[in-house]
Write a structure and sequence with these properties.
This protein is an alpha+beta fold. The chain has 2 domains: 271 residues, Butyryl-CoA Dehydrogenase, subunit A, domain 2 (Beta Barrel), CATH 2.40.110.10; 187 residues, Butyryl-CoA Dehydrogenase, subunit A, domain 3 (Up-down Bundle). The chain is 47% helix and 13% strand. It is built from 16 helices and 12 strands. The strands form 3 sheets. The chain has a 6-stranded mixed beta sheet, with no helix packed on it. The longest helix has 31 residues. The chain is globular and about 75 Å long.
Length: 485
């Protein structure tokens, strides 16, 4: 079933407990901190419902294309195009859009036996998400305060990370915190899990499950919502619509029925489910495509900024723009290669090339900060030369002065102001600062991303190149070696 945007918005009015500081938000679809981003999510639902290329048929029903388990390269292309359409809508600024966690679960469902005795639960949950068009996000990292559990034991304090505190006939009860549920205020369910390896004795913490956002005892503690402080779309065009919000998940004795439990009392399996199934690859292919769309916004903006002052005619500036274009094409090629060299894994299914996907993930983590810094240099002081806000256009005298003195031969004053407001929202506003930090740790710290690349590298093949080369020559016989003058 393909939901409409209106149906999704209605599903968010479910009594969920969202807190901005001490303020409880009763309706995220109408609250000034969240309403515009909620509408953006609704537009995603309407867009994919209207475009047959963003869905597929299974079991006699149309389903969102990001639930498609690929058997061919064409299936992978269909998935990629769906991700691209969704990412283009937000210019890659919604990191946890509805296709992200859905892709994780879809990849996991391609090898459900990895889940052992909970394989049936995972398979049924995938069908539930697909058939109900569920928007799920995840919280799969322990809070930073929980990195030293010995401290809490010595102080006789409860360990803050989420863990199972009781088993009942009808399910488990969980208490504690998880981070960081990006997009949770706009989602239907939260996937609770563990992307960071657990110690062998962290069995209660190994719980992997799905919890409705409005579950009794679950609260979302939002970071400062930037949309709330965006006065209008002109002055904050990105913050206005694309602040997906990050939240800490707090659970106090939340009941999880057994059918929504996927891993329990298995510290190793809690992480293996991501990398021993296509789940991690499917989910992070989406993130590669999302970043590529964001990169296209950055490249286009850089060129327009240069044109606005005539700097695009300067050879040094053209070199910078050429580098931007090369970087965008590099990422595009890495994404295309994931389909060209797709893997037949697991048996009977197609998976994006894992090595290329992880390489692209590393590329995004390493390059975003310096790309934004180069864009800042292109903007120079122009972002500070504009009036405080668009109300300057409401006063006839000020408007005439502004339009006279702020124009350039290349661009009118109002268009320049609009351009620089957009640039500032991408490089300098609080929204921009969040993205600078977000992209740096999008898939975890850099060492985590590089460890994925290390794990997937064909070291035997690399070693064979060296060993075969050395095997082709040996110690020369006495008197045969030519001396070098």
């Amino acid at each position: 079933m393909l939901k409409t945007g209106a149906e999704h918005l209605e599903s968010l009015r479910d009594g969920r407990a969202v807190y901005i500081g001490s303020e409880r938000v009763s309706d995220v679809t109408s609250h000034p901190a969240f309403r515009n981003a909620a509408q953006t999510v609704a537009v995603i639902y309407d867009m994919k419902r209207a475009d047959p290329n963003m869905s597929f048929e299974e079991g006699g029903e149309r389903c969102s294309a990001y639930f498609l388990r690929a058997r061919t390269r064409d299936d992978l292309v269909k998935r990629m195009n769906c991700h691209r359409a969704i990412a283009n809508l937000s210019h890659g600024l919604l990191g946890r859009s509805p296709d992200h966690v859905s892709s994780f679960v879809t990849g996991m469902a391609m090898d459900a036996p990895v889940f052992g005795k909970y394989a049936g639960n995972l398979a049924r949950y995938y069908r539930h998400m697909r058939e109900e068009d569920v928007y799920a996000v995840y919280a799969v990292i322990p809070p930073q305060a929980a990195r030293n559990p010995e401290f809490y034991v010595k102080q006789n304090l409860p360990i803050p990370t989420l863990r199972v505190v009781r088993e009942d006939d009808d399910g488990v009860v969980v208490t504690g915190m998880k981070m960081l549920a990006t997009g949770a205020v706009f989602a239907n369910e939260i996937w609770i899990g563990n992307l960071i390896p657990l110690a062998p004795n962290q069995l209660p913490e190994s719980i992997t499950c799905a919890i409705p956002v409005n579950a009794p005892g679950l609260t979302l503690w939002s970071r400062k919502p930037f949309e709330r402080y965006a006065p209008n779309e002109f002055d904050n065009p990105l913050t206005w619509r694309f602040d997906e919000t990050d939240s800490m998940v707090m659970c106090e004795n939340v009941k999880v029925p057994w059918e929504k439990v996927f891993v329990h009392m298995d510290a190793v399996l809690a992480r293996d489910i991501y990398i021993k199934t296509p789940g991690h690859c499917y989910g992070n292919h989406q993130s590669n495509v999302r970043f590529h769309c964001k990169m296209q916004l950055i490249v286009g903006l850089a060129s327009r900024i240069a044109q606005a002052s005539g700097a695009n005619e300067i050879p040094a500036v053209r070199e910078v723009l050429g580098r931007f274009a090369a970087l965008e094409a590099t990422l595009g090629g890495m994404i295309a290669g994931q389909i060209q060299d797709a893997e037949d894994w697991p048996a009977g299914w197609k998976t994006f090339n894992r090595r290329y996907m992880y390489a692209a993930l590393n590329w995004c983590t390493e390059n975003h900060s310096q790309i934004i810094e180069a864009l800042r240099e292109l903007c120079g002081g122009g972002v500070f030369q504009m009036p405080a806000d668009v109300t300057v256009m409401h006063d006839p005298v000020l408007r005439e002065q502004f339009e006279t003195y702020w124009q350039t031969p290349q661009m009118g004053a109002l268009d320049r102001m609009k351009l620089y407001k957009l640039a500032w929202d991408l490089i300098g506003s609080e929204f921009a600062g969040r993205h600078l930090q977000y992209e740096k740790f999008y898939a975890g710290a850099s060492f985590i991303v590089r460890n994925h690349n290390f794990r997937e590298a064909p070291w035997d093949r690399f070693h064979k190149v060296v060993d075969d080369l050395m095997a082709g020559y040996d110690v020369p016989a006495p008197g045969t070696a030519r001396k070098v003058a």
